[in-house]
Amino acid sequence: MLTEPPTGCKFYMHLLDYQGVGTKVYFFKGHRYIRYDRIDNGIDTGFPIDIENPAIPNQGWPGFRAATPDGRFATKIDAAINNLGDGSVYFFSGDQYLEYDIKDDRVVAATPIDPQIPGRGWPGFKNLGFDRSPTGPTDLYLGDIRTDPFPWDPKIEIWLPGEPKPNMKAPFSSPTDSRQFTGRPWRGVLHTTGMNGTPLQEPSMEGAISEFRVKNRWPHFTVDRRTGIINQHIPINIGARSVRNLTDNNNNVVQSFNADNCVQIEIVGNAINSNTWSSDELNVIKGLMNEIMNRVPIPRQSDRTFLAADQVAANPGNRMSVDEWNEFSGWCGHQHVPSPNDHRDPGAIDISFLLSP
Length: 357
Ligand SMILES: [Zn+2]
What we know:
The protein is an alpha+beta fold and 357 residues long. It folds into 2 domains: 12-112, Hemopexin (4 Propeller), CATH 2.110.10; 154-355, 3-Layer(aba) Sandwich (Lysozyme-like). It is 10% helix and 20% strand. The chain contains 4 helices and 16 strands. It has helices at 205-215, 279-293, 322-327, 351-355, and strands at 12-14, 24-29, 32-37, 42-43, 49-50, 79-81, 88-93, 96-101, 106-112, 187-194, 221-223, 230-232, 246-247, 253-255, 262-270, 330-333. The strands form 4 sheets. Strands 1, 2, 3, 4 and 5 form a 5-stranded antiparallel β-sheet that branches. It is globular and about 70 Å long.
């Protein structure tokens, strides 16, 4: 296993990108780079190649040379970072940084690192002397599996250790069952499998899963907070199916909220009394969230109010608009996912506890 960058490489970058190369690590040196495959444990055939060679269109990183008058991003990259969850990778060279849009596969712009203009660049870097040639390793990623063609290559699916268990994998009958992630900011969505219960009865893992089977409403995970049992149904680098998507009058999907880099957990329990769950029970959920955050860059944060289930209908402003959803990154509940979603789960769960370090 490769444990450190090759000689002369000042940094490397691990990128799960839209080419379906979820296992690739990139090493940059001078005007060339190599692409290393963590599963095959070797350098991909044909590398190193030029960062950008005008004689070979569409190879490498097109647009890097033209991004600045001196073409520096094709000859000298000091560092790169791609963990910000906003769909961009940031490359640094000298006193400039280049923003690269992964989803659209294009250069957005090259800009001074700290141009001392409010709201631009990386404020504070200049005062600390980091506005020129910062270097360092990153091993963070942003992206998904390509689901077209379907089925995809199973070796790039991300499952927690021990998952999936027999008969717990969600069936796939078409690419639209679990869509390729869109590249929007990463977020987690919490659900409860029950709402009120009449009379108030604790739902069961088995009951929840049989309902997912019937309705094809699979989450990534179902967790029983009382027994600690966790089942994973879908890899966390493609969409689950537990929230409603935005559709037009003809029922065509306009926006797949499920595919918006959204990792979904169904908690076995009722939304109406989720505020009463013990710290032991919450720790089961928190442990799963931590495992997810170790693998995909969902920030450990939530700026959302988790309302009691019976307060949701009276506070429609607590649900995100589509614009708010598109910008959101962190943890929210099904009660925050934009209309046509109208569910109230997971109720007033103690989100501060779940997100505490
Ligand atoms: Zn839900």
